[in-house]
Write a structure and sequence with these properties.
The complex is a heterodimer of chains A (426) and B (573). Chain A has 426 residues and is mainly β. Chain A contains four helices and 18 strands. The chains are: A mainly beta (426), B alpha+beta (573). At the A-B interface, α1, α2, β14 and β15 of A face α1, α2, α3, α9 and β19 of B.
Chain lengths: 426, 573
């Protein structure tokens, strides 16, 4: 009885909704119980086929219609771009141009600006670019870069860079054992002019000389008040002018395009710096980084291990001091990734990173990583039990030339972080 | 009186679920008619009525690829018709959504999309070799370039010969002489013989000195337009293949008759064409094209590689074109090993790669294409790695995704209709100068063809081409077993089981067996001897061979006025 009711109900609904038929559909047909032989003169070839959907069918499909409509602006945008600005989609850039810039996340969440570039402003081997990024009164970035290729010799390159930037909410914290409760916040405003000369020794190996002028103003941040954090120390609220000069050696013997899967990379640099407006600061910074790439045995070469060891040390000269912001720190997108920004700071830092990289697809890698790092004042303070651990996983986009983009999820005992960057870790 | 006692176990939850899903499917789909006709079977879909000439639709290179790869995949589970149909299939309540343009014989009627050719009316090797071609470019006189493309992967030009015929002229890539041009010609002719409309394509060798640049030809270089020069023309042909006489080898694709009005899409219909009534993703000939494309490794099949033409008769004809990414060719270069094996973005394999921590090595990852190129002129085209059931184009195509087993069978029988000699005749028109290369291509096509038959003809009962005859009270139903006809299965292990019924269910002959593709029965029953519908339910069994024993139901109609004929065919999936 109950089933009979179902069928009666169904029959009624079918009459209600199903308002048309389609000629010749045989998909779900079953032989009828009785047949009338019609010696039909009607010609089936005059009735066209039609795809139809009942009213009820449209109701069931409505969520998909909504979704399709929501993609229409993207469709129109892409099609207009293809017709009006085809070179944008073909990855071709002319000799000069303007691009919009957008930054999501970062210090204030959203900022926007413009990139202007010219690949031969005066001579074939010159190039220039200007980047302007506006966020808020606390966050702006203007950068002018001028590059002269084949400068002095065919192997030389001169770069001149001038920057104005202000950024909010930098973190001040010292020591390997300092707790998060001890951190306080500051803002900063920089003017920087730098020049470097890079000489190609062989293959992908370079020797660089650089000099730099930096004027930095440290400002107390309101965030300390908002978060009831310790007040930023008064003695560090200064405006400093520093000059530095240094030398860097890069030996790049890493092999594999677009995926580096063997070989090594060695980077060392030494910087001498001092203050120019007073006699407060005089120090050396030295840094050594070793990257090693090893394919995993018994698997294709694109399953590989990548190792990084990095030492950074600042050393005072005479009885002078080192600005706190020039002391090495850990806690960024390229070292202890699971910790907050500049979480650990002292005159020295030591970091080890191990990554297992394997292809998710032709254009993408999965990366599993673990970072171990600590900061110290004296080498004798380095202890096996003092390492801080962060770990995580990520996805790297690979272009035909190599690394293009990374998104990583990093975790630590204190916090977790999502990283989205166009620069590689190593 | 003996009593038959049967215990039926009913799962109430499943019963309710089945009823609900069944109801939804009934409501969401259109009504069905009976599975046979006593009248004429539809052989033509009248979509050729004169309509107003539509505006030309621009051809886009990116959107359909992005849409089909990402948004279409998200949209599928949001369409509850699809979801309930999937649930219905899982519960055994319903089958997959079948094509909308199939007649009662499970065939595609002719239309502006398709016409019956080699499978239905076997073509001679000469006809196959000629393909769609009606004229050759005249190389005795001068050609005049009237349009050109300097940049991009495949520079080329449009030229008019001395007889006034216009052609698109394309060349091989510098490292793979004869590869792209031969692939274009061979695949064009195979598609033509399979029933599709295609442009005329031929290999030509022209004297490079007998080409001139027409007045006012504009080319684009570095985003700027300028007049084309003779030097531009020389640049275009600088890397082209030449024969001993110094003549340049090219593909000449003749301008189609009528007015091009843009590409057609692999889903939906064209809103400004009143004749276009069947959703393209539900057209049998487009769904089944997947099998033909798999044979040729036609990986770049997409909207931009199709063409709609407004004919002189005032309707839109639908062409398939651009076969430069078939066989071993990938435009001017060679196919990558992954092509045909997985989509360019394939979440199925990506998930496996990700979760296996890289321990899963996909077959294409281990292949260096350069190790498997026997001759530059055939590129990367293999049968060893071909998996007919898993073949995909570079980007998802909605019509291909919708392909059912019945669509696949239709496509497979088109492929299997090409004999070895047919294939050889067509491949010869690619004019490969190296005989070994030509033979390699022929053999690879034969092997891939047989793999298609071997795979799909196991999935469904591959009997077709039914014919009924009546002599007195004897009725003979004969048919072709495509599996044995093409040597996929052996005759000696094959038997055909059938039950013959009247349409009202009266069993005339039950569980009969025949070693031959022919049944003869004496028929005396039925209420109206002068006009009957007989129902044959046929299953094919092959000893020691793993095949799906699916049923084909054939409706034979007989009456005094029109004699005996096949009134309907149903294939069980």
């Amino acid at each position: 009885m109950k089933i009979t009711c179902y069928y009666l109900g169904l029959f009624g609904l079918i009459l209600l909704f199903d308002t048309h038929t389609t000629y010749g559909q045989t998909a779900e047909t079953t032989p009828t119980d009785s047949v009338t032989i019609s010696n039909s003169d009607s010609n089936p070839n005059i009735t066209p086929y039609t795809s139809n959907r009942t009213a009820f069918g449209h109701i069931l499909a409505f969520p998909s219609y909504l979704f399709e409509w929501s993609t229409k602006p993207l469709e129109w945008g892409l099609k207009i771009t293809e017709k009006k600005l085809p070179q944008l989609l073909q990855g071709e850039r002319g000799d000069y141009g303007v691009f919009p810039l957008f930054e999501l996340g970062g210090d204030i969440g959203f900022s926007y600006g413009l990139l202007l570039f010219h690949n031969r402003p005066f001579y074939q081997n010159h190039s220039a670019r200007i980047e302007a990024l506006f966020g808020s009164s606390d966050y702006n970035d203007f950068d002018f870069e001028y590059e002269i290729d084949r400068f002095l010799t065919d192997r030389g390159q001169l770069d001149i860079d001038a920057t104005y930037s202000n950024r909010p909410d930098r973190v001040f914290i010292l020591g390997n054992d300092a707790s998060l409760d001890e951190r306080s916040f500051f803002d900063r405003e920089d003017i920087e002019i730098a020049a470097s000369y890079r000489y190609n020794l062989f293959d992908k190996s370079y020797l660089s000389f650089n000099s730099d002028y930096l004027r930095r103003k440290i400002i107390r941040s309101d965030r300390s008040l908002e978060e009831s954090a310790p007040v930023f120390p008064e003695q560090f609220l200064t405006t400093d002018a520093l000059i530095s000069t240094g030398v860097m050696l890069e030996l790049d013997q890493a092999i594999g395009v677009p995926r580096i899967n063997r070989g090594y990379r060695l980077i060392t640099d030494l910087q001498w710096s001092r203050s120019v407006t007073n006699d407060q600061y005089h120090y050396l910074n030295y840094h050594a980084e070793w990257n090693q790439f090893i394919p995993v045995p018994f698997l294709p070469d694109d399953r590989r291990l990548a190792f990084k060891g990095e030492l950074h040390k600042a050393k005072t000269l005479g009885d002078k001091d080192i600005p706190f912001y020039e002391k090495p720190s850990l806690g960024s997108s390229r070292d202890l990734r699971g910790f907050s920004f500049d979480r650990f700071r002292d005159t020295g830092s030591l970091l080890f990173t191990l990554e297992y990289r394997y292809p998710l697809w032709d254009f993408s890698d999965v990366v599993l990583f673990v970072d171990e790092g600590q900061v110290f004042n004296q080498y004798s303070e380095i202890g096996i039990n003092d390492f801080n651990t962060s770990y995580g996983f990520g996805f790297h986009l690979i272009s035909s030339k190599g690394f293009a983009f990374r998104s990583e999820f990093a975790f630590s005992r204190e916090t977790s972080r999502f990283i989205l960057l166009i620069s590689p870790n190593f | 009186m003996p009593v038959l006692k049967t215990t039926i176990t009913i799962n109430p939850l499943k019963t309710h679920l089945t009823l609900i899903i069944g109801a939804i499917l009934l409501l969401s789909s259109c009504a069905s008619s009976k599975p046979y006709t006593t009248g004429l079977v539809k052989t033509f879909d009248p979509d050729t009525s004169a309509v107003e000439q539509p505006e030309e639709e621009p051809s886009y290179q990116y959107w359909d690829r992005i849409d089909n790869t990402i948004f279409h995949q998200v949209k599928k589970p949001l369409d509850l018709n699809r979801v309930f149909r999937f649930a219905g299939e899982t519960l055994g309540v319903s089958g997959p959504k079948q094509a909308d343009n199939i007649n009662l014989l499970d065939e595609v009627p002719e239309s502006s999309w398709y016409t019956y050719r080699n499978y239905y009316n076997p073509m001679t090797t000469r006809e196959l070799a000629r393909g769609p071609n009606t004229v050759q470019p005249d190389t005795s006189g001068h050609w005049t370039i009237f349009s050109a493309k300097l940049e991009g992967m495949n520079p080329g030009f449009f030229a008019e010969d001395s007889r006034g015929n216009r052609f698109l002229i394309k060349f091989d890539g510098p490292n793979y002489p004869e590869l792209t041009t031969s692939a274009e010609v061979i695949s064009t002719k195979i598609f033509y013989a399979a029933g599709y409309y295609v442009p005329e394509s031929t290999i030509t060798y022209f004297d490079p000195e007998k080409v001139q640049v027409g007045d006012g030809v504009v080319v684009e270089e570095n985003g700027e337009e300028r007049q084309m020069t003779l030097q531009d023309y020389r640049e275009i042909i600088s890397n082209a293949t030449r024969n001993e006489q110094g003549h340049v080898r090219a593909l000449a694709s003749k301008f189609v008759d009528g007015v091009p009005v843009g590409p057609w899409n692999f889903q939906g219909t064209r809103s400004d064409d009143p004749n276009d009534r069947v959703d393209h993703e539900h057209r049998r000939e487009i769904r089944g094209m997947r099998i033909i494309s798999s044979w040729l490794n036609d990986t770049d099949r997409r909207d931009a590689n199709t063409m709609s033409v407004y004919t002189d008769q005032g309707y839109i004809r639908h062409l398939v074109q651009d076969f430069g990414n078939t066989l071993g060719a990938n435009g001017a270069s060679i196919h990558y090993p992954i092509y045909g094996q997985a989509y360019l973005v394939d979440p199925r394999y990506m998930m496996i790669s990700g979760l296996s921590l890289g321990l899963k090595v996909h077959p294409w990852e281990e292949i260096d294409a350069d190790d498997f190129i026997p001759h530059p002129s055939v590129g990367y085209f293999r049968s060893e790695t071909f998996r007919p059931g898993r073949w995909v184009s570079v980007h998802p195509i909605p019509a291909f995704e919708n392909m059912t087993l019945r669509d696949a069978f239709w496509g497979a029988k088109q492929v299997m209709s090409f004999s070895d000699d047919d294939i050889r005749a067509i491949v010869e028109t690619g004019e490969l100068s190296n005989q070994d290369a030509e033979e390699y291509l022929v053999q690879t096509l034969i092997e891939r063809r047989d793999m298609i038959g071997n795979y799909w003809f196991r999935k469904i009962n591959p009997i077709d081409k039914f014919n009924a005859e009546k002599r007195g009270d004897r009725i003979t139903l004969s048919f072709t077993d495509l599996g044995t006809e093409k040597g996929i299965f052996e005759n000696s292990v094959t038997q055909y089981y059938y039950t013959l019924k009247s349409v009202d269910g009266h069993v005339i002959a039950e569980d009969k067996v025949s070693d031959h593709a022919e049944f003869t029965d004496i028929f005396t029953g039925g209420s109206k001897p002068e006009s009957q519908v007989l129902v044959y339910e046929i299953t094919t069994r092959r000893e020691s061979t793993e095949t799906a024993e699916t049923k084909v139901t054939v409706y034979v109609v007989t009456d005094a006025e029109n004699g005996i004929r096949i009134g309907g065919i149903q294939r069980q999936e």
